[in-house]
Amino acid sequence: METPILKIDNLSRVFSLGGQDYPVLQNIDLAFEERGFVLLSGKSGSGKSTLLKLIAGILKPSHGHVLYKNKTIDGMNEKHICAYRNREIGFVFQQYNLFDKQSVLFNVVLPLLIDGRGISKCYEMGRKLLSAYKLDLMHDTEVGKLSGGEKQRVAILRAIINDPAIVLADEPTGALDRENAIKTLEMLKEISKERLVIVVSHNLDLALAYATRHIEVKDGQIVSDVSFPEQS
To answer: How far is the first Cα of the chain from the last one, in angstroms, to the nearest whole number?
Structure first.
């Protein structure tokens, strides 16, 4: 493996409730290259989404570390962790979390506007991104008028507008029919040619066709980690 962009070092996460400790992840060691489509699977409650939140810096490890470009993110102060999440991480969720009364273009460029970029520059970048993924004809369309599959593709473009190094997708096809699930996975596959994409999914029959690596989690531990040759 090349020098990893992301490392999980002896990571554990324990939640406490009513004086009782509940381990969710235990002694996880993983390393990720700069590019690729990584499928993360496992039953509900296995720790998949918790792992994504630890990578994003939303949660802190109980033990161990998450390292991005050889720097531990769990030791960052609030200012630096916010900058890391805003600029290095792109999020894609099952629920699109879009503003239905606003245009597609506005939704896509929102992270740039929040980051304080110039408005005209933001919209120029948004139009270019929509055009690159052949969605430019809908940039003035109100999001509420889109189908679920179209909304998810808009949400993916919003996730990459800041050019993040890592895209984290938590059940991105969970609310979609098969046709739109395929379009969504094809889009994430294309994006994974330039950056690391980690996808949590129960939809294994589809997602495995796009993955370059499959990590299976069971009871908070890694039980399988298999890489696949790139398919043309």
So the answer is: 21
Specify the pairing of strand 166-170 against strand 6-17: unpaired
Q: How far apart are CA 73 and CA 165, in angstroms?
A: 14
Question: What percentage of residues in the chain have a pLDDT greater than 70?
Answer: 98
Element (H, E) at 93: strand 89-93
Please tell me the predicted confidence (pLDDT) of residue 221: 95
Q: What is the pTM of this model?
A: 0.93
57 residue type, one letter:
G
Q: What is the torsion angle, in degrees rounded to the nearest 10, for the CA atoms of residue 215, residue 218, residue 222 and residue 228? A: -20
How high is the pLDDT of residue 18? 83
Which backbone phi and psi does 157 adopt, to 5 degrees?
A: -65, -40
Cα–Cα distance for residue pair 156/160, rounded to 1 Å:
7
pLDDT at 176: 92
Place of tokens 């020098």: 3
If DSSP codes are grouped into helix, strand and coil, which group holds residue 30?
strand
